[in-house]
Amino acid sequence: MAGYDGSTVHARVRAHLDAMQAERAAAGPLGALAAHIATVTASYGSGLFRCDDVPDLPRTNNELERCCGAVRYHERRVTGRRTLMGGTIVRGAVRLTTILATRAGVALEVRLTDRAAWQELRRHLDYRRAARRAHRRFRQDPDGYLERLERHHTTAVEGRGVSGQRRAA
């Protein structure tokens, strides 16, 4: 609903769902549909109306997909690759935001404002990079990778007693 903020839209949708629930008994076979619509709408929570609070956020998935598709198209065109680069997949959230802001001509202010959020993002990116590195090592040498993994697990288990506590040296 263009022109309304998220809380107004949420209140209007809630009133409509309440009216549907009140008329559920009279709706006959459509009563189950009304209950299903209410359940699904409730599962989305407050995120359903985020586009009404954030000015330039795309209102539909189609608009968002069009933005992402344009980014993928330009990545492929610039690199000459048919598939996306690994960096795009691992660092997608950061790269997509930067690319879209650059295309829109928005000057990004690069300043650390929320240190905890930045550290959480770094942990997430490092975790994904480590997982991709492990997959690559496994594909290159499956037997050697499994042997190293088994050796690491064996030394970790031998260092612990029955109760899971480390043994005294």
Structure characterization notes:
- This protein has helices at 6-22, 31-44, 50-53, 61-79, 86-90, 92-103, 115-140, 142-158.
- The termini are far apart.
- The chain is built from eight helices and no strands.
- The mean pLDDT is 78.
- 67% of the residues lie in helices and 0% in strands.
Q: What is the number of helical segments per DSSP (H or I, 4+ residues)?
A: 8
E-strand count = 0
Distance between the termini: 69 Å
- Please tell me how large the radius of gyration is: 25 Å
How many domains would you count in the coordinates?
A: 3
Shape: extended
Mean pLDDT score: 78
Listing every helix as H and every strand as E from the N terminus to the C terminus, the arrangement reads: HHHHHHHH
Structural class: mainly alpha
Contiguous low-pLDDT stretches (5 residues minimum) are none
Multimeric organization: single chain
Q: How large is the share of residues in beta strands?
A: under 5%
Largest sheet: none
Helix content: 55-70%
